[in-house]
Write a structure and sequence with these properties.
Radius of gyration: 15 Å
Oligomer: single chain
Distance between the termini: 17 Å
Number of strands: 7
Largest sheet: 7 strands, mixed
CATH class: Alpha Beta
Structural class: alpha+beta
CATH architecture: 2-Layer Sandwich
CATH topology: STM4215-like
Length: about 130
């Protein structure tokens, strides 16, 4: 009998990847810095028995509006380079932008915010 595959915490996996790729803080909460990335899982069902298709929203914050859209574009490029690679042992099968970019001001933060939504299909792996 085959073991059940595990799937990553997609928010943590993508935040870690984007922080390294972009050189800015990234996580699931707003940061005190004026420039940062926020990654939130906003849905998505399992695609198959061996893969997951999480829907994620990526938010780019920057003190300048032009900085926010530029940071978001860099995040989009970093995400679109993932298919065919493995991140922390999880193979990324595809990444598709399904919404945005959107100028979505955050009333609780002084920085400007732009967002996009994507679906990232990722293969599970055997538990260790």
């Amino acid at each position: 009998m085959s073991k059940t595959l595990t799937f990553p915490d997609i928010e943590d996996l993508l935040a870690t990847h984007l922080a390294a790729a972009l050189g800015v803080p990234a996580g699931t909460r707003a940061a005190p810095e004026s420039s940062f990335i926020r990654v939130l899982r906003t849905g998505g069902p399992p695609a198959t028995r061996v893969s997951d298709s999480p829907q994620v929203t990526v938010e780019a914050y920057h003190r300048l509006e032009s900085g926010a859209i530029n940071l978001l574009e860099r995040a989009r490029l970093a995400l679109m380079e993932l298919p065919g690679t493995a991140v922390d042992g999880f193979r990324v099968k595809s990444a598709e932008i399904i919404g945005g970019p959107s100028n979505l001001p955050d009333p609780t933060h002084e920085s400007h915010r732009y967002t996009f939504t994507a679906v990232v299909q990722i293969r599970g792996k055997q538990p260790t």
